[in-house]
Amino acid sequence: AQSVSQHNHHVILSEAASLELGCNYSYGGTVNLFWYVQYPGQHLQLLLKYFSGDPLVKGIKGFEAEFIKSKFSFNLRKPSVQWSDTAEYFCAVNAMNRDDKIIFGKGTRLHILP
Amino acid sequence: DTAVSQTPKYLVTQMGNDKSIKCEQNLGHDTMYWYKQDSKKFLKIMFSYNNKELIINETVPNRFSPKSPDKAHLNLHINSLELGDSAVYFCASSPPGSHGYTFGSGTRLTVV
After folding, report:
1. Are β-strands B107-111 and B87-94 bridged in parallel, bridged antiparallel, or unpaired?
2. A42: chain B residues, CB-CB within 8 Å
3. Is A9 near chain B, with CB under 8 Å?
4. B contacts of A94 (beta carbons < 8 Å)
5. Which pLDDT tens digit goes with each residue over B68-93?
């Protein structure tokens, strides 16, 4: 069965620091990959997604993620974080050729210090 | 216009009661979902409907019953509510091909 693992449960950074959140998935076939963000008290919003093509995907608010197929990874990065990036970040995967179910990781809570 | 709307936003009820949460999407998507987010923020899929047909039914107690009167609506009815049902329930929809979900704003259910 497909699964998603997010390495960091809670990350604390100062403003302007660089960010990398780890995500690994387990599924041997073709996948669609996503990062969602949930700001405090709000619903989930799509940050970026990878379906095919260039493995370096750019999303909203300066976020990007790199799909490395050999490592089954899809890490999220941002060169310089802002206080407003404080939120919960979820990596998610959908296994192609199966149902449209998206499996979410357990999330990483990002706290940016002003 | 709200793309995926859920009502109510907050629901506080006593154990043993029966309650419903409604979800509507105006995106023209064929597939709708219910997810449960627990106190640790873990998101777990409960159900998925495609064009009114049940596609995914995860290991959810049969006290939970989804109903889809048409492809734009997916309601969730919960019988005999228990303390452990307290969570935030998110509705979502997607077009064909798993291009990502659009989520509703969530319903925070508190069972006392």
Report:
1. antiparallel
2. 105
3. no
4. 98
5. 999 999 999 999 999 999 999 999 99
Q: What is the pLDDT of residue B37?
A: 93
> Does B45 contact A103 at a Cβ distance shorter than 8 Å?
yes
CB contact at 8 A, A74 and A50: yes
Structure tokens at A16: 């302007």
Q: How far is A13 from chain B (nearest CA, A)?
A: 20
Put simply, whether A109 touches B (Cβ < 8 Å) is: yes
pLDDT tens digits, A9-58: 999 999 999 999 999 999 878 889 999 999 998 889 999 999 889 999 99
